[in-house]
Design brief:
heterodimer; A: alpha/beta; Rossmann fold; 2 domains; 9-stranded mixed beta sheet; 5-stranded parallel beta sheet; 17 strands; about 30% helix; about 25% strand; elongated; B: alpha/beta; 6 helices; 13 strands; about 30% strand; globular
């Protein structure tokens, strides 16, 4: 059995969990094993139902009462306990911030290897796994020698897709937590912005050094607002202090996956590219026709963003009027 | 407040990154080296905490002898001590790396006392294993949280007390409050690292770097080869030049249904 650990929020399976189930379906098939899922912290019907839509035949629910929010230690401990008592043939999660953390915690407890951000896995006596290095600029083929392979699939490395719908059996999992597992439980949550955020925005208007100043981002803000999107930026821009780090698209920032990424004045260094490459479409605005971003884009406008962006804003307003 | 920061020497790539002919490693022949970005912020974060609470920062790295350069850089921006666990190359698997670092930390603490806080980068820029810090924390029996972009220490930062840490999530942040001694995996965005001053640079040349030989058993993950991903070669459609291209751009937006 392949056990997929599902990340959820407010009764909804997050996109990362849907990706993990999609990746897991293919993997379970290669293993010749059943696809089962685990929910930690909540076993709401909506979550079980969603797991079923993505092909999970059984859902194991571990929701100890004392676990009232996320805790890396508690979640890691529960996954380790599941490995020991459910004896899965392998365990998979999505390589989100939380997914990689929980699997690392479980692996540390089991003193077992853990392969983060896999793109492809071939089961066997030793598993053969292709995984992400440098945020996706390079790939590494590794062998994994383990009693129970523990792995994550790279975030956005597969597009989520519902599978053969199942009506999953729900199995309560009796997890034992001790006080030390609850030390790292989230104490408080602070909401800074409601509505569309960078990781989920359908349109991202990105700016690089070419924007020229913090004020220069005003135009990109206006365009993003008109299109119901968000502003993103390159690492050069956050290093210059023009934008907060939470706006950074890149290996050390946010990995975006919008319908379209409009990249203005961004050269496209690999650090930035790996954060942008999951965009469904890319439009680059740059004075340099040879810039990496232009070469990799679907569409490009060659020119000064300070002329092009205002013209786009006017045209959008005209057509919306 | 005694803080340890674990850093990693990594190549500093620009627009492209190449692999050696045998696929065993990154071809660094024409690349400079740097401290992995999350860890550069970890060093800055540690120095800021010590400036606020007093104390000292030690930096530890596992890597080839040249990694001394990254320890001296950390010293140039405020670290007081450097420890190098010397190994051949950069290809140690995560379990092995964590085991060797744990041994090193236990040794340093036996000699100089316990660290109130140990900082790792959330993941290294190159290997990106997302686990060495977690494994070390577990081996030391200390609480650990990843993804941290804000740190505060209660009281004077030493001994009993707590560390309050913020983790960015979509649209906000989570707050953790954990007892010392604690371990955190931090991310770029924690701060904007300072540049070394001339005085800092001079001082960094004089600090003594303690060198330890790295020993640990291999873990279960072994590299076969590194390679570049196949890239979909697509012809970029040039919509036009300058402001005149606006109409064509908006046509595209309309077609994609985002207008």
């Amino acid at each position: 059995m392949l056990l997929v650990i599902l990340e959820h929020e407010d009764g909804v399976l997050v996109e990362a969990a849907r990706e993990a189930l999609t990746f897991g379906r293919t993997l379970a098939e290669k293993m010749g094993e059943d696809l089962e899922a685990a929910l930690i912290g909540s076993g709401e019907d909506s979550l079980v139902e969603a797991a079923g839509q993505y092909g999970a035949e059984t859902v194991h629910v571990a929701a100890p009462v004392e676990l009232t929010d996320y805790s890396p230690d508690a979640y890691g401990s529960i996954v380790a306990q599941m490995v020991e008592s459910l004896e899965p043939d392998a365990v998979l999660a999505c390589g989100s911030s939380r997914g990689n953390e929980v699997m690392a915690q479980a692996a540390a407890r089991l003193d077992a290897p853990f392969v983060a951000n896999s793109l492809d896995a071939t089961p066997g006596d030793d598993w053969l796994i292709t995984r992400v290095q440098w945020g996706g600029s390079l790939l590494e083929d590794v062998t994994l020698e383990a009693d129970t392979p523990l792995l994550t699939c790279g975030l956005h490395s597969v597009a989520s897709e519902p599978g053969d719908e199942q009506n999953p059996d729900v199995e309560e999992f009796d997890a034992e937590l001790d006080a030390s597992d609850l030390i790292t439980m989230v104490k408080d949550r602070v909401v800074q912005e409601a509505g569309v955020t960078l990781p989920t925005a359908p349109v991202v208007c990105g700016g690089g050094r070419g924007v020229g100043s913090a004020d220069g981002f005003g135009q990109l803000e206006e365009l993003a607002t008109l299109l119901g999107g968000r502003v993103g930026c390159s690492r050069a821009v956050t290093n210059l202090g023009w934008r907060p780090h939470s706006d950074q698209v890149g290996q050390t920032g946010t990995r975006i996956a919008p319908e379209i990424y409009i990249a203005s004045g961004i050269s496209g260094a690999i650090q930035h590219w790996v954060g942008a490459m999951a965009s469904k479409h890319i439009l680059a605005i740059n004075t340099d026709r040879e810039a990496n971003m232009v070469v990799k884009a679907d569409w490009a406008v060659i020119g000064d963003l300070h002329e092009v962006v205002p013209a786009i804003i006017e045209e959008v307003k005209r057509r919306k009027a | 407040m005694k803080i340890l920061v674990c850093v990693k020497r990594v190549p500093a790539p620009g627009a492209k990154i190449n692999v050696t002919a045998d696929g065993s490693d990154v071809d660094a022949a024409h690349l400079g080296f740097t401290t992995s970005p999350h860890e550069e912020c970890a060093v800055e974060g540690a120095v800021q905490l010590v400036e606020e609470h007093s104390g000292e920062v030690t930096v530890l790295t596992l890597g080839p002898g040249e990694s001394e350069e990254q320890l001296r850089y950390a010293a140039s921006v405020g670290a007081a001590h450097g420890v190098l666990v010397e190994v051949d190359g950069n290809g140690w698997d995560p379990q092995r790396t964590a085991a060797a670092l744990t041994t090193a930390i236990e040794g340093i603490e036996a000699e100089r006392g316990r660290f109130d806080l140990i900082l790792f980068g959330n993941e290294s820029a190159d290997a990106g294993g997302f686990q060495v810090g977690v494994r070390v924390a577990r081996a030391l029996g200390r609480p650990m949280v990843q993804g941290i972009k804000g740190i505060e220490a209660s009281g004077d930062g030493s001994g009993e007390g707590t560390i309050t840490a913020r983790r960015e999530i979509d649209g906000g942040f989570e707050v953790y409050e954990i007892p010392r001694p604690a371990v955190l995996g931090v991310m770029e965005g924690l701060n904007l690292p300072r540049y070394p001053t001339m005085k800092g640079r001079l001082a960094s040349k004089k600090i003594e770097i303690a060198k330890l030989a790295g020993h640990a058993d291999e873990g279960g993950q072994s590299r076969i080869t590194l390679h570049r991903p196949e890239e979909a070669v697509s012809e970029t459609v040039i919509l036009g030049t300058g402001a005149e291209a606006a109409a064509a751009v908006v046509d595209v937006l309309d077609e994609l249904g985002v207008l």
